[in-house]
Amino acid sequence: MNILVLGDVVGSSGVKAIKEKLPKIIKEKKIDFVIVNGENAADSGVGITKKNTEDFFSAGTDVITSGNHIWDEKETMKFITEEKRLLRPQNLIKPSPGEGFGIFESKSNKKRVAVVNLMGNIFMKKCEDVFKEAKKFIENIRLKKDADFIVVDMHGEITSEKMAMGYLFDGKVTMVVGTHTHVPTSDHRIMEKGTAYITDLGMCGDYNSVIGMDRDNSLKRFFNDPSGKRHYPATGEVTICGLIVNADEKTGLANKVEPIILGKSLQERF
Fold first, then answer.
1. Counting runs of H as helices and runs of E as strands, what totals does the chain give?
2. Residue pair 1/109 in contact by the 8 Å Cβ criterion
3. Closest CA to 175 of 155, 190, 160, 187
4. Domains of the chain: which residue ranges?
C-alpha cells in the first residue's frame, strides 16, 4: 500500500501544479491513497475554497487536511459540513463545523484509511490540548481493528511538539507527518516501533519566496515599509514536496519512506 501526503499547497500556482503533476506522480509511483494539506490553497494564500477542493479531488486527491487558516475563506464553514473529505483540525475549540477525523476507502484496493488532522498549541490559534486529543484518538481508533492504515497530519509551528507527537503515536499509526512551516525537513524515517515520521513535509509552492509569499513584499513588511502590502503568494515555478510511505498490509506499519521534491528550486528527489 503506497500512501502519498503532500505539504501545504500555496496559492493559485500551487493548485495549478497539483492539477498538472499529481496524476503523473500517482501513476509513476503507483500511489493507492493521496492526502493533501490545502489550508493555503486560496488565491490569497490563506484558506481554501470549494473550487480548490474540487480541483484537488479531480487530480486524484482522496482527503484534504488543513490547519490554522481553515476558516480564512468564509465559504468553507458552510461547505465543510457536506464535504467529509475536507478535514479541519480535530482539536479546534468545540463546537466547530466539519470533522477533524474520518475513515476513508482507498479507490485502488478498498482499504480503510483513517486520517486525523491535529493542530499544535504553541504559537498557533487557540485550540484544545493537542496531546489530550491525540491520546483520546489512540484509545478510540486502533490500527488493523478500526482501520487498515492510519495517517496523522500534525499541523504545528514548533519541531518539539511534532517530534513528541511522533513518539506518542509510534507503533500505533502508519505515519505522522508535520505540516505548517512550509520548509521540508530531512529527518524522514521509520521510528523504532514502525511508524513513518517527518517533522515537516514542506510546501507545494514557489520556493523563491518567503514561505510561499512574495519575497520583496515580505522584506518590506519586515522593515515596516509603508508601501508593504498584505502578504500575497509568489507565483513563480512551484516545487512539490511530500512523502510516500509504503505500508505493510498485515501490520499497517511502514516498510519504506520516500520523500518527494519535484521542481527546480530545491534539489530534486523523485
1. 6, 13
2. yes
3. 190
4. 2-262
CA–CA distance, 192 with 152 (Å, rounded to integer): 17
Per-residue pLDDT tens digits for 56-108: 999 999 999 999 999 999 999 999 999 999 999 999 998 899 999 999 999 88
Judge contact between 117 and 131, C-beta under 8 A. no
User: Could you tell me whether strands 101-105 and 112-119 are parallel, antiparallel, or unpaired per DSSP bridges?
Assistant: antiparallel
Q: At the topology level of CATH, where does 2-262 sit?
A: Purple Acid Phosphatase; chain A, domain 2 (3.60.21)
Peptide bond connecting 226 to the previous residue in cis, omega within 30 degrees of 0: no
CB 8 within 8 A of CB 203: yes
Phi-psi category of residue 148: left, alpha or beta, with phi > 0 → left and psi -120 to 50 → alpha? alpha
Q: Which residues contact 120 (CB under 8 A, 6 or more apart)?
A: 130, 154, 155, 156, 157, 158, 161, 162, 180
Interatomic CA distance for residues 248 and 253, integer angstroms = 6
pLDDT digits (tens, 9 = 90+) for 152-200: 999 999 999 999 999 999 999 999 999 999 999 999 999 999 999 999 9
Please write the tens of the pLDDT for every residue from 35-54: 999 999 999 999 999 999 99
For the question of residue 231 being annotated catalytic, the response is: no
Q: What is the bridge-based pairing of β-strands 63-65 and 33-37? A: parallel
Three-state secondary-structure class, residue 50: helix
Which residue in this structure is represented by grid cell 480535530?
90
The DSSP line for 221-255 is HHTT-TT--S--B--S--BEEEEEEEE-TTT-SEE
Contact 11, 43 (CB under 8 A): yes
